[in-house]
């Protein structure tokens, strides 16, 4: 069996290229000649021609032993560099490293055509009333319904389903097996494999005879630069739209219910569930497995710790955690108190 190369080897970058991309500055003397970087790696696995980064003392021993040609780190940590490593200093090493990696491996940034082609592949099903701008790529098995509009340079991967009258902006990517219905999608939006957008919201009226289904007639609006992880589901609104604000990044396996309004540049981590008609402000961060009750508001810049249950409105700019969620210091005090009580009880039992 041959070993596949999923991401093509990049064009080498010079040190001056890396400095320009990362904004870092040299802490050590630059080598004579033109040192070229051809790849990126961890401190442990890096070899000649590789770029690595180092931003925490926890990995100090790995840094001292690294064989990387170039390493981006903080000014303080860079003083411990081994001989022969060119050290570039940055206040944000991981951010600087990512900027270089983006240039080296651009195809890793979003889903690529599965069929390895450009344009409309054989086996794609496109309704004659759909309108596709120049540069749109459509994989085999994709279905594009009537009245759909897709902007230039967007990729529709294999077996994706684009429902009637959906709008997709330019330079976006719809991954394999995505279903996209009743939705307006902006520019540079990324939908990873298996995302479900625009299906029914969960709406029923209970009665003695059973549950009466309520029509869901809203839409989903994904603004520019939104990214949605694999297997995530975003329901369309009941009467008003479900809206995801520009720049928001959503992890895999997240559930967002009908009528939810998510602000700009939020982070929502895996297995989080947001109930109907909840509102998130701008720059909100939700850790993994957070549950958000319906009809509440989380203010701008608030951060919610993983596995928390949010049942009340959250003020802007705070850090909450726990179940039910509360200010982090209060939550920590409760945990410490319970721990002391448990230890005291165990001690008393031991004496008895």
TrEMBL record:
GO CC, sorted alphabetically, is: membrane
Q: Which Pfam families match?
A: Hexapep, LpxD
What GO annotations for molecular function exist for this entry? N-acyltransferase activity; UDP-3-O-[(3R)-3-hydroxyacyl]-glucosamine N-acyltransferase activity
Q: Name the residues annotated as catalytic in the UniProt entry.
A: 258 (proton acceptor)
What start and end residues bound the annotated signal peptide? Answer: none
The biological pathway it contributes to is: Bacterial outer membrane biogenesis; LPS lipid A biosynthesis
Q: Where is the UDP-3-O-[3-hydroxymyristoyl] glucosamine N-acyltransferase non-repeat region domain?
A: 34-102
Q: Name any Gene Ontology BP term.
A: lipid A biosynthetic process
Subunit comment for this entry? Answer: Homotrimer.
Q: Which family does it belong to?
A: Belongs to the transferase hexapeptide repeat family. LpxD subfamily.
Give the protein's function: Catalyzes the N-acylation of UDP-3-O-acylglucosamine using 3-hydroxyacyl-ACP as the acyl donor. Is involved in the biosynthesis of lipid A, a phosphorylated glycolipid that anchors the lipopolysaccharide to the outer membrane of the cell.
Protein name from the UniProt record: UDP-3-O-acylglucosamine N-acyltransferase
Gene source species: Aquabacter spiritensis
Tell me the organism's taxonomic lineage: Bacteria, Pseudomonadati, Pseudomonadota, Alphaproteobacteria, Hyphomicrobiales
């Amino acid at each position: 069996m041959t070993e596949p190369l999923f991401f093509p080897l990049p064009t080498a970058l010079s040190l001056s290229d890396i400095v320009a991309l990362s904004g870092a500055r040299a802490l050590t003397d630059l080598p004579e000649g033109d040192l070229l970087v051809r790849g990126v790696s961890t401190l442990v696995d890096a070899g000649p021609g590789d770029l690595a980064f180092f931003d925490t003392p926890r990995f100090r021993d790995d840094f001292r032993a690294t064989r990387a040609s170039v390493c981006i780190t903080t000014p303080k940590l860079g003083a411990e560099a081994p001989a022969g490593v060119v050290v570039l200093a940055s206040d944000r090493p991981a951010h600087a490293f990512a900027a270089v990696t983006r240039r080296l491996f651009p195809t890793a940034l979003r889903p690529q055509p599965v069929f390895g082609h450009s344009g409309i592949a054989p086996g794609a099903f496109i309704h004659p009333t759909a309108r596709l701008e120049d540069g749109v790529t459509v994989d085999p098995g994709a279905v594009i319904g009537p009245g759909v509009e897709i902007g230039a340079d967007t990729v529709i991967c294999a077996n994706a389903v684009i429902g009637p009258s959906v709008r997709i902006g330019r330079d976006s990517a719809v991954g394999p097996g995505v279903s996209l219905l009743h939705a307006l999608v902006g520019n540079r939006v990324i939908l990873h494999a298996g995302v479900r957008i625009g299906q029914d919201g969960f709406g029923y009226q209970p009665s003695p005879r059973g549950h009466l289904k309520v029509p869901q007639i809203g839409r989903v609006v994904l603004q520019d630069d939104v990214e949605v992880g694999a297997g995530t589901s975003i329901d369309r609104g009941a009467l008003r739209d479900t809206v995801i604000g520009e720049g928001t990044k959503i992890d895999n396996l997240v559930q967002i219910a009908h009528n939810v309004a998510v602000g700009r540049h939020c982070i929502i981590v895996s297995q989080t569930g947001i109930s109907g008609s909840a509102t998130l402000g701008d720059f909100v961060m939700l850790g993994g497995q957070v549950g958000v009750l319906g009809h509440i508001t989380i203010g701008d810049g608030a951060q919610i710790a993983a596995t928390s249950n949010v049942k009340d409105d959250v003020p802007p700019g705070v850090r909450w955690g726990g179940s039910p969620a509360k200010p982090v210091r209060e939550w920590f005090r409760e945990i410490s108190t319970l721990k002391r009580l448990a230890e005291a009880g165990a001690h008393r039992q031991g004496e008895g």
